[in-house]
Specification:
By secondary structure, the chain is an alpha/beta fold. It has helices at about 15-25, 25-35, 50-60, 75-85, 125-135, 155-165, 180-185, 205-215, 215-225, 230-245, and strands at about 40-45, 65-70, 90-95, 110-115, 135-155, 190-205, 250-260. The chain has a domain at about 10-145 and about 170-200 and about 255-260: Rossmann fold, CATH 3.40.50.150. It binds S-adenosylmethionine (SAM).
């Protein structure tokens, strides 16, 4: 069993985040465009993980702007710092907690948050802090999953559904937060400008799907929880592999991106 940080993350998850970063390149770029991340902007990447987005944000804001990442998991904050350094991207990275941001009021023109609110204890408390550190008229882009948007085609749909249902609680504190983000943002004093639906990645081979969505781990977990019969995880994965070889396999998971503007004064 891997040791996990209090955020639920382990260094070994870097591979999953890298796979998502690769699959989400165009989606992330569109979000950064919508946020107006360009030279001179002051941008916070909240829950930056090992820094895939932070590198791009730092490149966009350039030497006249400010790119700052924050993550509660110290090893990811360190990895983000190293990644930016290795890529020649000028960014500051803080290890810290999203409900107590170590930044002054109105310090940023915008804030990017991707797949973070799903994990935090109190998403409303995080958004109150975001409202404080983003200037009036500033923008936030929040991209979160909603596990009701997990779609799969392949062998034995009943087993697929049992695996998804049995393991959804383990994928974050708020697995269905994607659709709730606009309401949470409105309550925190933001005006919703746009809501987009995306696939985190669409995979038709088991290896890539496994790397991004940890399918074999979920199948084993479902077996451990008694949601599928003993031994079924291994045989089902073999069937998935065979189905993928015939071109009869597909899995995707949905993300919602909400773009909003801070209209009220910080509370
Ligand atoms: C799925 S990862 C996303 C990382 C990055 N945003 C990306 O898209 O690659 C979620 C990140 O949120 C961080 N996180 C979870 N709870 C947090 C909290 N309370 N405060 C700050 N960061 C947190 C985790 O440590 C992890 O790096």
């Amino acid at each position: 069993m891997r040791s996990r940080d209090k955020t639920g993350y382990a260094t070994a998850d870097t591979g999953v985040l890298a796979a998502s970063a690769r699959a989400g390149k165009a989606r992330k770029a569109a979000c950064f465009d919508a946020l107006g991340i360009e030279p001179g902007r002051r941008v916070l990447d909240l829950g930056c993980g090992p820094g895939h987005d932070l590198v791009e944000i730092a490149r966009r804001v350039g030497p006249t702007g400010l790119a700052v990442g924050l993550d509660a998991f110290g090893e990811f904050a360190r990895a983000a710092r190293q990644r930016c350094h290795a890529c020649g991207a000028d960014a500051n990275v803080a290890a810290g907690e999203a409900t107590r941001l170590p930044f002054r009021t109105a310090a940023f023109d915008c804030c990017n948050i991707e797949r973070v609110l799903q994990h935090v204890i109190d998403p409303a408390a995080v958004l109150a802090e975001v409202a404080r550190v983003v200037s009036r008229g500033g923008l936030v882009g929040i991209t979160e999953p909603d596990r009701r948007l997990t779609l799969a085609d392949g062998p034995d749909q009943d087993t697929w559904q049992r695996i998804i249902a049995a393991t959804v609680a383990g994928t974050g504190r708020h697995p269905n937060i994607g659709a709730a983000v606009p309401t949470l943002l409105a309550r925190a004093g933001f005006e919703i400008l746009d809501i987009q639906l995306h696939a985190r990645g669409i995979y038709r081979d088991l290896r890539s799907a496994d790397e991004a969505y940890l399918i074999s781990g979920l199948a084993q977990e479902a077996e451990r929880l008694g949601a599928i019969p003993a031994g079924r995880a291994a045989s089902w994965l073999e069937e998935c592999e065979a189905a993928a070889a015939r071109g009869e396999f597909l899995v995707l998971s949905g993300l919602l991106t909400t773009i909003a503007s801070r209209v009220t004064d910080a509370v």
